[in-house]
Amino acid sequence: MRDFGDRFATLLLVLKRADKGGETVFPYLQRTITQEVGDVLLWINLDRTGKGNTNSLHGACPILEGEKIAATLWLRERGQPMMHNPDGMELFDVEALARPDVVFL
Description:
GO molecular function, one term: metal ion binding
InterPro entries: P4HA-like
CATH superfamily: q2cbj1_9rhob like domain
Organism: Oesophagostomum dentatum (Nodular worm)
Number of helices: 1
Radius of gyration: 16 Å
Number of domains: 1
Order of helices and strands: EEEEEEEEH
CATH class: Mainly Beta
Keywords: Iron, Metal-binding, Vitamin C
Structural class: mainly beta
């Protein structure tokens, strides 16, 4: 995976929710997220300089009843146009990441 760089962002989609347990916990944020089927959770793993974002540390709580099925997508830094900031001061170009779509404004 080194060819693709670090995980820039993580996307977690819940396809089946556990009857009890299975939450996603972010200990540094003191947050526990309970997702419903079809919910998507997206978080950024790197800060704007390319260093690891400690707030992205997470874990899955134990499944106490039933089962949980989830799909994970890792967005990696290499080969991503938004990762090339024209001013060179930061790792990624915020404008490319969150540019408003003028068609819908």
